[in-house]
Amino acid sequence: MVFENAEKQLEKAKKHIKLASETEETLKLPKEALSFAIPVRMDNGTLKLFQGFRVRYNDARGPTKGGIRYHPNVSLDEVKALAFWMTIKCAVIDIPYGGGKGGVIVDPHKLSKAELERLSRGWMRGAARIVGPYRDIPAPDVYTTPQIMAWMMDEYSLIVGEHCPAVITGKPISLGGSLGRGYATALGGFFATKEAVKKIKVGKKIAVQGFGNAGAHMARLLIEDGFTLVGVSDSKGGAYLDSGFDYKKLDEIKQKEGRVDVYPGAKKITNEELLELDVDILILAALENAVTKDNVSKVKAKMLVELANGPITPDADDVLHKNKQFIIPDVLANSGGVCVSYFEWVQNLYGHYWTEDDVNQKLEAKMVKEFNATFDIYKSKNVDMRTAAYVLALGRIDEATKDKMKL
Ligand code: NAD
Fold this sequence. Notes:
Layout (H helix, E strand, L loop, with lengths): L1 H13 L6 H6 L5 E10 L5 E12 L5 E8 L4 H17 L5 E8 L7 H15 L8 E5 L5 H15 L23 H16 L5 E5 L3 H12 L3 E7 L2 E4 L6 H11 L9 E3 L1 H5 L5 E4 L18 E4 L7 H9 L3 E3 L1 H4 L2 H15 L5 H25 L4 H21 L2
Parallel strand pairs: 3-4, 3-5, 6-7, 6-10, 10-11, 11-12
Antiparallel strand pairs: 1-2, 2-4, 7-8, 8-9
The site of nicotinamide-adenine-dinucleotide (NAD) has 20 residues, from helix 7 and strand 7.
Pfam family, one: ELFV_dehydrog
Keywords: NAD, Nucleotide-binding, Oxidoreductase
Subunit structure: Homohexamer.
């Protein structure tokens, strides 16, 4: 499903840009796809094999970059699709990387901390032959954490015999992680939204689907900037408050109760109702396929921001575009995360570390520039914003591929 959506988006964009045959060919298959067994000695003494993957989809613009996912539903096909997506995302935000992705078929919640460490070190031993600071640089994704990045970095350093922080990003600060990385995805999305609001005049009433890492920081940043959060949800349900949520109180309730729908004085709503609220901006920060052909006609927001990956299906996309509901697509809206990962890698290679303000200013400059580059294509080619972002990315990948390969 995920790869089908990515392919559909690619085909749509290709109608608006002439690619060299070399580019078309090299985008058809991943450059490398590694599938390997990870033997892990469990705490009870038995040996268990886990299936690990690493895919380097395309490296026309630089070393491949992308997270590692720990989830029972991981498959090689999904990892390939996500690696393709990273190729587009890195090109949209114009960082010198190609796209990669990794994963392990595992429910990490069923492992002890020691088992998780052995699994993570085992993943790195399996992937080390294609990973490297100038080859392929992993990062966290679903259910992988800075601690896991630290174990993997340490394992890689043991393999190559030197301290090698630049092999992986999303590390703890003590091991070369970047200041600002923890909320970079939300901050990038915030900068993009602020630019969008300058172009598409909309009001300040917002709703956030998915009060997790990305969604909560985004809610905080927008409230601090004068927006009113009237709707919010997490996996347990949603809440509506016409006068607007107080961020501090909302965060406290989420920490204490593990849910947002018990906010005092707010009306409980379902996750579906949250998507249908009469708001100016809807932030999608939960899961893929939240807005589909079945519910798109009920979505009233004038602007939708995809902090999650793939929250709007292609058929829903077409409807929203026809209705002039503006979308900031995932490959642009959530690219702040990989952008600050790139900053982390640069700092590691230099051995020189920036202040949080430095990081955030550099991120703002990137987001503003690439939002406007995408918006210009949206206007000049009269396409939707997602197609515009793909056209921008494909143009950059095409240029690099031609310079490398064309006779
Ligand atoms: P997270 O697990 O911290 O948060 C996800 C939130 O969504 C949780 O609060 C969960 O309760 C909620 N949720 C789940 N199902 C829901 C539903 N049906 N309705 C409403 N809420 C629901 O994850 P995150 O790191 O914030 O990531 C969210 C999305 O953003 C994912 O798609 C992720 O791939 C994408 N993303 C995150 C980053 C990052 O740096 N964190 C970077 C790029 C993309």
